[in-house]
Amino acid sequence: MKDKTANATLLHKRRSLQMALASASALLLPRHLLAQESPAAPPKGQVLKVGPLRELRSLAAASKAAKDGDMLEVDAGDYLGDVAAWPQNNLRLKAVGGRVRMLAQGAASQGKGIFVTTGRGISIEGFDFIGAQVPDQNGAGIRLEAGSLSLRDCTFKDNENGVLTSNDEKVRLEIEDCEFGTIVRRNGKNHNLYVGAIAYLRVVGSYFHHGQSGHLLKSRAAVNHIFYNRLTDELGGRASYELEFPNGGLALVVGNVIQQSAGTENPHIIAFGSEGYGPGRHELHLINNTVVDQRPSGGVYLRVNPGAVKVRLINNLWVGNPQIPANPEWEQAGNFLVDLDTFVLPMRDNYLLKPGAKIRGKAVDPGEVDGLKLRPTEQFLHPRGTLKLKAVAMNPGAFQFP
After folding, report:
1. d(CA 80, CA 128)
2. How far, in Å, CA of 226 to CA of 206, rounded?
3. Is there a contact between 212 and 188 (Cβ–Cβ < 8 Å)?
């Protein structure tokens, strides 16, 4: 009996020590790494089948039946005017057998969009959000109001906003292999992706195109990881900024193709701090991006408002305009101004380097930020996704290998 008591006491002490060590380690981690920590394993719920021939015939019905930790397997097909709010935690929605197409057709959850999410740890995979429009002209495919949301292999088309978040500083949003297409033009405040003053934004392997007056990607998040994406306005697109961080923050922008169209309504392509800086850390790291200006009268690759801000431009390719970014206070290395004939087929938005391009092999080591190495390990794979590199990235720009 004494042995059992002693063992129990020892086990309790070990658990207490592990908890203390975990708490101490968390205090030492950089803020942006804390944002990426994996949460505790969610409780396992039920698997709910959703579809026209199922007991749960609609997403609206499923949203009322679902509990924390449930998995919703949604049959492929068109769901017309089927809008829903999701307050559950650790909820997973996954398309089965093909695409799940959510066509708003005038309907909106809470007058805001097709989906409204407020739960923690919600994930959505394989859904298309189409046609969100509301009376205040601010309808969204998804409104993220609270909690955290992960999107994978989702598309957004013909909405007033693709995804729109609140300004809740605890919110986290992660987007992987998604497409944000044509935006409905309203009053100039409609964006393919508009992220408010949240804690953390991660966007990887995603395709943004054909903005209309608003921006392709606008984020007020404290920490932003924008890796291996394509943000190209293209023929018929009339976006303002292609990429904007209006209040600064920590922005790691690595391995992206960023292109301004001839029809843009703003000469600036990338902007940082354009609406002023608040308290906190403000750093912009542009690493291994291919930035293309197609504005006939010449655009501006980068606009940075003065202030207590750190800017690093490493291994970028500037295309189409000889006026490259310059500021003696910025750290710059491995950047090149190049012509369109450097690329395989630029007139079709193919910015792979030609095999004999003289800039091959001229990249420098971009270093790291808070322990995160910034040398690319992947590259964008059209139409959405990434390709893992099989060798060390040695070329400037977004692409290493065909």
Report:
1. 12
2. 10
3. no
What are the Cα distances from residue 129, in Å, to 42, 78, 274?
Answer: 26, 10, 30
User: What does the pLDDT read at residue 43?
Assistant: 60
pLDDT tens for each residue of 113-162: 999 999 999 999 999 999 999 999 999 999 999 999 999 999 999 999 99
pTM here is 0.89
Q: Is the dihedral of CA 384, 390, 396, 402 positive or negative?
A: negative
Residue 2 in this model has a pLDDT that exceeds 50 = no
Mean pLDDT of the chain: 90
Give the integer Cα–Cα distance in Å for 113 and 205: 24
Report the distance separating Cα 310 and Cα 359, nearest Å. 27
Range 216-242 average pLDDT: 94
The pLDDT of residue 26 is above 70: no
Per-residue pLDDT of 46-90, as tens digits, reads 999 999 999 999 999 999 999 999 999 999 999 999 999 999 999
Cβ atoms of 344 and 350 within 8 Å: the answer is: yes
Q: Which candidate, 257, 215, 263, 255, places its Cα nearest to that of 237?
A: 263
**257: Cα separation from own chain's centroid:** 14
Residue 186 scores a pLDDT above 80: no
For residue 42, whether the previous peptide bond is cis, meaning omega lies within 30 degrees of 0, is: no
